[in-house]
Amino acid sequence: MRKPTQPIVIIGGGIAGLMAARVLMEAGEEVVVLDKGRSGGGRLATRRIGDATLDHGAQYFTVRSPEFAAEVAKWEEAGWVMPWFGSPNVRYRACGGMNRLTKHLAEPLDIGVRVRVTAVHPDPVGWKLDWVSEEQDFVPQMYDEVMPEDVYDPGAKASVKARAVILTAPVRQSLYILRAGETELPVPLLNELQAVDYLPCLAALVVLDGPSAVPEPGLWRADHPDSPVQLVVDNSMKGVSARTALTVYACGRWSKEHFNEPDEEIMRRLLADAAPWFKGANIVEAQLKRWRFSLVHKPYPGLFADAGLQAPLVLAGDAFIAPDDSTQSGRVESAALSGMAAARHLLKVLPVVD
Ligand SMILES: Cc1cc2nc3c(=O)[nH]c(=O)nc-3n(C[C@H](O)[C@H](O)[C@H](O)COP(=O)(O)OP(=O)(O)OC[C@H]3O[C@@H](n4cnc5c(N)ncnc54)[C@H](O)[C@@H]3O)c2cc1C
């Protein structure tokens, strides 16, 4: 059998894309992961501020399915993750920060970072993907219909061909990329995908000059889901940071309401609300992170969506949740399960090359 000349391309190097790529690589497929970020990892994000290290996307993950448990057991064995707290629903943290886990997962893979895919076009070999190199460090994010692509000033432009594509960006971004390439989805599928929704999240990253008042094990969660400050994590108590550094998360409702306000205004309010956790310590530095797509609010009813077009094209990610998943919430686990299921599906439907 002739080896296919075009790779499978995965858009997005978050946990879904990485798990999909590993399944395909283990099956002997040539696979390339493209991610617009400075490194992969997506919402498994860790930032360094001086000698402080702060997780500022997912703080932990839980394990409910036997399939994900088998993966996590391997990660624990390798020293990549360890239990943080909780029983029987153990919350796992990644050693060195959540992003480090995705770096380990990406090690054997061919991954291109700072590559923003802007369009996926139908092509005789399968698909043609346009991409631009992400040379801008900051692309303004607004909570409305404007996508970063609309205001983006591209650096180097190029395209790559693929025999199959898996899109793992948040669904609205994936739909944007498909629309830009005039790749039309069947209307019923498009309607279901357009219904998928995520909550935004505003997070303050705060480095302190002394210990915080966050209780053991380094995490405080509000009793009410609409409290403006929803979660406060002390990254040094968590074992991630060399110095006291808090991540302060606003709830979805508050984040949506204030998303388009200037940084200073958001920080002024968030820091005032979080002040009890600073216990008199001074703020050394504070930065804001805007997650336009944070937790899934309305999921897609299935582990992935096959577009059913002229060549394989599958959408996956944390919003793709099996109807029998009792949580129906987008999580690290749902993203990993979706990525693996999408890849296994692709292996079944890929045309045989002769
Ligand atoms: C603040 C916050 C708190 C959370 N807390 C928890 C928690 O406690 N427990 C839990 O289990 N989960 C939590 N989550 C959710 C969890 O992080 C996500 O469910 C999971 O990481 C999603 O993985 P993914 O691969 O589906 O998507 P992502 O991680 O979003 O990956 C998608 C990737 O696609 C890339 N991309 C997007 N567009 C393009 C493009 N045009 N070209 C190239 N690349 C592109 C992005 O850069 C990104 O890396 C939290 C998330 C946030 C933001």
Give a structural overview.
The strands form seven sheets. The chain has a six-stranded mixed β-sheet with strand order 7-2-1-11-21-20, with helices on one face. It folds into two domains: 8-197 and 297-349, 3-Layer(bba) Sandwich (FAD/NAD(P)-binding domain); 201-291, Polyamine Oxidase, Chain A, domain 2 (Alpha-Beta Complex), CATH 3.90.660.10. It is built from nine helices and 22 strands. It has helices spanning 15-26, 66-77, 98-106, 148-151, 171-180, 187-194, 252-258, 263-274, 332-349; strands at residues 8-11, 31-35, 46-49, 52-55, 81-85, 91-94, 110-113, 115-123, 126-133, 157-162, 164-167, 197-198, 201-208, 219-221, 229-234, 245-250, 283-291, 296-298, 300-301, 305-306, 313-315, 320-321. The protein is globular, with a radius of gyration of 20 Å. Helix content is 26%, strand content 29%. It starts with 7 loop residues before the first strand and ends in a 5-residue tail after the last helix. The chain is of the alpha/beta class and 354 residues long. The longest helix has 18 residues, at 332-349. A hairpin with a 2-residue loop joins strand 8 and strand 9 (126-133). The protein binds flavin-adenine dinucleotide (FAD). Flavin-adenine dinucleotide binds next to helix 1, strand 2, strand 8, helix 5 and strand 13.
